[in-house]
Design brief:
Blueprint lengths: L6 E3 H8 L5 H9 L3 E3 L2 E2 L6 E3 L4 E3 L2 E3 L6 E6 L29 E2 L8 E7 L2 H8 L7 E7 L6 H8 L2 E4 L2 E4 L4 E4 L6 E6 L6 H8 L4 E9 L2 E2 L9 E3 L12
Length: about 240
Amino acid sequence: MGGKGSMMRLDRLVSSQIYGISRADVKKLCLKKKVMVNGKLMARSDAKVSVDDEIFIDGKRLVYREHVYIMLNKPQGVVCSTKDGESKTVLELVPQELMREGLFPAGRLDKDTEGFVLITDDGELSHRMLSPKSHVPKTYFVRLEKPWEESYGEIMAEGMTIDGDNGREKCLPAEFKGSDSDPYECTLILHEGKFHQVKRMFGTLGNKVIFLKRTAIGDMQLDTNLALGECLEIMHKDVENLLAR
């Protein structure tokens, strides 16, 4: 049961990869002869195996992933939280095959905002992505109550000051681009994430956001084929796109 990857107990490895299966469950599966490693039935759940080993659980191949990265197209009415007593959470939209212990939304969208939410169990990546030092850009599609004005671009590029519950706050420079086809639609790229920032920025300019959708994080675009409420696993080789500046 060699392999170049790190070694760990069979029960620990399996329970870390399959949501809802405990170490005790793995022991029961071994006793029922439903666990195979490299073509051999495993009688002991405490046996040491490699993450590179070929493991089958009840006839299904288990592929080890140290972390999971999930793109969710969040609908309105869903909250970016692991638990909520009243509203549906983003974790409730994750399909069973992608679920695992420790998943959380890396960053937040308002309840009434749609679009790209990253769900992961990788705390280090989340910290790098959300750190104020990183300035990872996030792109938003915005529909306004009143037509946008040419002055918006210059004002936002200079780093505008917005009103809030805790007084006035200075924003980092943002990139505004008005739609060529619709005077009520625009795109905004932020390099930070203040509370209700997009709404407050346009509010300060005397306008109102009536629809908001996050369309990209870093260089990773929200998959246009992903319907509202659907998830897509992000491959590890593409994860660095989330940190692009």
